[in-house]
Amino acid sequence: MKTVLLCAALCAPGCVMAQDLRISDACIRAPMPGAPVVSGYLTITNPGPVADRLTGGRADFAEVMQIHGMTMEGEVMRMRQRVDGLPVPAGATVTLQPGGDHLMFTGLNFAPKSGDTVQVTLTFDRAGPVTLPMPVCAGGPAGRVQ
């Protein structure tokens, strides 16, 4: 009972806790008709004393989930897979957002629609697999049109 109350006190609705990690603001951007990929966004907070690393994950609606980052090369923004994963430093918050680090789902088995909620399992070095509901938003995080 204390664990549930503590989790409820630390984590708002739509938030998932695993080990020292708090995952919130999760959202899948609704794909354009016929699009072969869809992106996902969320916030990972690590208030604990030990770093972790997001190394991958999976979702039923896609064959592959990768972690991608965006970098500027001259005046061109390039997207690259983060093959070594995404560090989540101790005492820090990492935000996956449009134009920055994000989840990329490819080989869609079906196209999630705005208003749906899909289950996604993230894999961390320390926290292990963490399954969370991710609502599908018309424009990305907080339903904003990007």
TrEMBL record:
Which InterPro entries does the record cross-reference, listed alphabetically?
LpqE-like, Lxx211020-like, PCuAC_sf
**Pfam family for this entry, one:** PCuAC
Q: Which SUPFAM superfamilies match?
A: DR1885-like metal-binding protein
Q: Which UniProt keywords apply?
A: Signal
Signal peptide residues on this chain, from the entry's feature table: 1-18
What's the domain of life for this entry? Answer: Bacteria
**Name this protein carries in UniProt:** Copper chaperone PCu(A)C
